[in-house]
Design a protein that fits this description.
- Helix content is 55%, strand content 17%.
- It has 4 helices and 3 strands.
- Strands 1-2-3 form a 3-stranded antiparallel beta sheet.
- The radius of gyration is 17 Å and the shape is globular.
């Protein structure tokens, strides 16, 4: 079975909800390997401070930051300059990037499921 592409590139052109700044640029996301999933998990735990009673919104924020930090492999200079999202004021920008990644992951999984079901019906 041939796997679908592990990468996708998309454009962002969105105004920040807090700063009013326009964020533009091309991003490339690559699906996380086992190792990069582990590094993302470590970063999330570090950001959470290993707190067991962390606010769910903060936990979600840290999930987005950690996943994007290890999944985005090409991005505009402003993304690096804002410490890969940590120094943004505009949560809507972080959420937009993360949702694009989540949508890609869902579509990738659907393609695999379709291929797997087709393979099963061929046998």
């Amino acid at each position: 079975m041939k796997l679908p592409s592990m990468e996708f590139t998309f454009e962002l052109n969105k105004k920040g909800s807090s700063s009013g700044k326009l964020y533009e640029g091309s991003f490339t996301y690559k699906r996380l390997t086992i190792g990069s999933q582990g590094r993302a998990g470590v970063l999330k735990a570090k950001l959470n401070g290993d707190l067991t009673a962390i606010d769910p919104e903060i936990d979600r924020l840290h999930e987005m930051l950690s996943w994007l930090r290890y999944g985005l492999i090409d991005y505009p200079d402003w993304w690096r300059e804002c410490s890969f999202g940590e120094n943004l004021y505009d949560l809507n920008i972080l959420e937009e990037l993360y949702l694009r990644v989540v949508d890609f992951e869902k579509e990738w999984t659907k393609k695999i499921d379709v291929q797997s079901n087709k393979k099963d019906s061929d046998t």
